[in-house]
């Protein structure tokens, strides 16, 4: 579960990789995604397989193998991709999800829920189709 906004390399690879695949409109392999995103082939392969497992991509092996989109780009949001990799983004009042705080109010104010809400809204309002242009 993502408790506070984090943007890991895996999340970046997943979102950028899916945009690249959607734009290509044809099979694209791990090597090409790794080159474009300046990432490790092994890390790209691991992230892409996670997205295959969750049904966003289809994969094929062999010299002409790679990945192709298995979802409608107009329906697939960045939030869905992010949560596939990082887990559900929950908006919490406490960044550590503590039921009891030793202070009357959070020393961070309400910045954590505001940031998380804004992040979640941005990802949920952006589809792959939006980024294919």
Description:
With 133 residues, the chain is mainly alpha-helical. The chain has one domain: Arc Repressor Mutant, subunit A, CATH 1.10.10. 49% of the residues lie in helices and 6% in strands. The protein contains six helices and two strands. A two-stranded antiparallel sheet has the order 1-2. The chain is elongated. The two termini are 31 Å apart. The model has no long low-confidence stretch (mean pLDDT 89).
Q: What would you report as the Rg, rounded to the nearest angstrom?
A: 17 Å
What's the helix-strand series? HHHEEHHH
The spatial strand order of the largest sheet comes to 1-2
Mean pLDDT: 89
Give the count of helical stretches. 6
Shape: elongated
Distance between the termini: 31 Å
What is the count of structural domains?
A: 1
> Based on the structure given, which CATH architecture is correct?
Orthogonal Bundle
Here the CATH topology equals: Arc Repressor Mutant, subunit A
| Count of distinct strands | 2
**CATH class placement:** Mainly Alpha
Can you lay out the helices and strands and say which pair or pack?
Layout: H1 9-24, H2 30-37, H3 41-53, E1 57-60, E2 66-69, H4 78-86, H5 111-124, H6 128-132
Antiparallel strand pairs: 1-2
